[in-house]
Amino acid sequence: MKTKAIEIKEGSYLRDKEYIGFTGVTRFSLEFWDKVKDQVGEVVKAEMKVSASRTKDLYLVLYTTKDIKVCLYGVNAGYLGEGPRGSQRVLKEAGFNPKRVDELVFNQEVFTLRRKVKQAQTA
Question: Each residue's pLDDT tens digit in the chain (123 positions)?
Fold first, then answer.
């Protein structure tokens, strides 16, 4: 898969579909997440939303400490399937409570998760 270069700076709104070229494929959203996750800052909020489009597709928005929003259009929620498993992986990697993630991702289509910023380690 050929993707556009990803420019990441504070205040960015990163949408996987703008770099991948199309939307709705879990594998491609996960590849995009893998490319950006170490550069966007700590994720402190996640929202599974419904698009305003005619199809009412779900998508995941992650909010970070660097004021960056990451939108993943190939993951979703509310059933046992590939899309929700993608959401589950992203949210767990982002540091959300694993039990809460499992509870929400497979049982609700729309939700919001919040977590506190981790305290910096001192030597």
Answer: 555 678 788 989 999 988 877 788 999 999 999 999 999 999 999 999 998 877 778 999 999 999 999 999 999 999 999 999 999 999 999 999 999 999 999 999 999 999 999 866 444
Closest CA to 42 of 84, 96, 83, 82: 96
DSSP 94: T
* Rounded alpha-carbon distances, angstroms, from residue 2 to 21, 22, 51, 92: 9, 11, 26, 27
Q: Report the residue count for the chain.
A: 123
